[in-house]
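Team,

Forwarding the record for the chain on the shared tracking sheet. I've put the sequence and predicted structure together so nobody has to dig through attachments.
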Amino acid sequence: MIDLTVYKENLEQNIQKARERGIVLPTFAQMRSPESKIPEETLKRLKTVGLWDINPLNLFRITWKNEQKTRGGLFGKPNYIVLPSKLTGIEAAVICMVGKFFPTGCHKVGASYGCLVPRLVTGQFNSATQKAVWPSTGNYCRGGAFNSKLLACESIAILPEGMSRERFEWLHAIAGETIATVGTESNVKEIFDKTHELRAERDDVVIFNQFDEMGNYLWHFEITGSAISEAFEDFKRSKHKDAANARLAGISIMSGSAGSLGAGDYLKEIYPGCKIAVGEALQCPTILNNGFGDHRIEGVGDKHIPWVHNVKNTDMAIAIDDNDAIALLRLFNEPGGREFLTGDIGMSDEDADNLSLMGISGIANMLCAIKFAKHYELGKNDVVATILTDSVEMYKSRLEELNREDGRYTHIRAAEDYSKSILAQSTDNLLELTEFDRKRIHNLKYYTWVEQQGKTADQLNELWYNQEKNFKGVRSQVKQIDELILEFNKAVGLRDAVV
């Protein structure tokens, strides 16, 4: 469970700093239902603030329900799109939650807040004297650096040197310090090694490791899970054919930190028969084949099983070829691809425009959903949910690289990519998990978390056998954390007067 021990001296310094900077913290309830829970005075002030502005008001935009505006937006329904069968080649509907309209353009800003806020309101992290360290394969450290900036505390972002140019350019302007480690998405151990170095060399750092911070899991359970449920219920009321009789068959998401899979735990409690599928790169099949190799699906870290992955509640593992994800990045965003999609297969301009809402990991998530649907032979009344973590905005440099390396994207290439990377998706390279499979995957945590990260074998066993204390226990803490946030805001004295 999340440690909520209060350190009064540090807490007082956090309160004083928040008072000086005009900082008010949103509760989980406000992130879940901003349209009804955020104070009216705060809503008025948000109308003058840009979505990515370095303004503490943007803490209240850590939600799936932001209006799709660059400035002054408030809140409405969860942001989602439904992919047409003309694209996916399956009868089942694929609902995609859209991460682009979070501050920073990615939902990881929420996961980082979920990790930071419990320590801030208990004084376990001192924003006046300590630096927040955000180890990541990309977007989490961006979210952490952004939240740190809004909260006026120093940050250190750690990510592999092979990540996209856009991430580094943005971090250099926002983070106090940016550290590039060796490798790409698959080199998570190297990120952990750097955090060990920092902890050994400096006494002013606090590591917010998304891979074992239960705040990551809790944020997705409460906020992402509820948003997907609302999106699904909204879809059922829509004019989509067969929507009224729809059932939520499952959620299928690539494993980065595995925090997003917490949304699946939420959905399983509400929708009987809903299944959770976890995806990984075929080039680095940790869950399916114990981990090796490198891949190009940015934001998906491999060669380990995150501590926060509730393996015991996972139903399927799916491997996605990174060549397919990269090919579709071009199909969805090059003029030749757009011409093929709207002309040859008859997608509407609106549906084609929506494809730019997918980054590379979002495309991989879509492919997971397609393979999931094919495996279970889902039909017209079935729905699979997934997440578009970020958008093509984070990968423009990758498109430039691909154009230099492979030449202009042609109509013929678009037809080939659509055929082989979408329609040809099959039920290979996946595994429907038995209890034995789940335990095997869970036990892989030993090599990272016990041998390298200082946890014990007893903790590993308790994580498996004692759900009430761990994953279910964490979920029971949300009201207590919200109470601590409200007490913090009350002590700051600026509840409705954010500046």
